[in-house]
Design goal:
Order of helices and strands: HHHHHEEEEEEEEEEHEHEEHE
Number of strands: 14
Strand content: 25-35%
Oligomer: single chain
Low-confidence stretches: 1-39
Bound molecules: zinc ion
Mean pLDDT: 88
CATH superfamily of one domain: Alpha carbonic anhydrase
Distance between the termini: 42 Å
CATH topology of one domain: Carbonic Anhydrase II
Largest sheet: 12 strands, mixed
Shape: globular
Radius of gyration: 17 Å
CATH architecture of one domain: Roll
């Protein structure tokens, strides 16, 4: 219901879709959704959604650019089961920025990161571009679906992407994230005022038993070559906070995709 309503409102996003900000967000958070498979955004992306004719089952047929959504072999999300224990070092999270800008992409609320939020893992350093949430979670953990899933989309010097994932359960209010929820009213296609937020407190500072596997963006064009880095220990947000999010976007989760024998590993516990 909400999603069809969003489709009607996307003309605003289409108007602004050529902006540098939204171009940055293309991929895991590209703009646009619509009622007609033929329609496309000003950025040239064919519009897609989470239900009906433009929903996940049809993404691959909406545009040749989205073919990987159908014929890719390492697609995300997945059901994370039986990770192989490696004992390898966990990622070193060094998120330090204290501001952000919330952008309503038409599919989710993207908290765009300034420079400086870095993670080092497997000898590579990634820098956060933006963070967003899916309600409910997209990846499953041993068949369990959490109430929400945070994705921090990170890029390295070779333009390779990783997504640092943290699951969310309903519980105590999360004070660190409240400035994000306070900015949730930004209009579709619009970018809010700069907000003060402490990125170091948004994510676990020292994740343990981190799970890693190869995958893809979970939205069209479903680009592969994405390194997934999942903290299996969920954090909490309150019912009220999650309801604030759901009032803007709900059920923006792609169904789980086949594993196709890909390796899943787990760092030191
Ligand atoms: Zn995502």
């Amino acid at each position: 219901m909400l999603l069809s309503a969003l489709g009607k409102r996307t003309s605003v996003a289409v108007t602004l879709a050529g902006s540098a900000t939204l171009a940055l967000l293309a991929g895991c958070s590209s703009s646009g959704s619509a009622d007609s498979p033929e329609s496309s955004t000003a950025s040239g992306r064919v519009e897609w959604s989470y239900s009906g004719a433009t929903g996940p089952q049809n993404w691959a047929s909406l545009s040749p650019e989205y073919a990987t959504c159908g014929d890719g072999k390492v697609q995300s999300p997945i059901d994370i089961v039986n990770p192989k224990q490696t004992g390898n070092p966990n990622p070193v999270v060094a998120y330090t920025a204290t501001q952000a800008t919330v952008v309503n992409s038409g599919h989710d609320l993207d908290m765009v990161s300034p420079a400086g939020n870095k993670m080092t893992i497997n000898g590579k350093t990634y820098e956060v571009e933006e963070a967003h949430l899916h309600t409910p979670a997209e990846n499953l953990l041993n068949g369990k679906r959490f109430d929400a899933e945070i994705h921090a989309k990170q890029v390295d010097a070779d333009h390779k992407y990783s997504v640092f994932t943290v699951f969310v359960t309903t519980g105590a209010a999360n004070a660190a994230w409240q400035p994000f929820f306070d900015a949730a009213g930004v209009a579709v296609g619009a970018s809010g005022e700069k907000i003060s937020i402490n990125w170091a407190q948004l994510f676990p500072a020292a994740p343990k038993a981190t799970i890693q596997f190869p995958g893809s963006l979970t939205t069209p064009p479903c680009t592969e070559g994405v390194s997934w880095i999942v903290d299996p220990q969920p954090i909490t947000m309150s019912q009220s906070q999650l309801d604030t999010l759901r009032a803007v976007y709900n059920n923006n989760d792609r169904p789980v995709q086949p594993l196709n024998g890909r390796p899943i590993t787990q760092d030191a516990k």
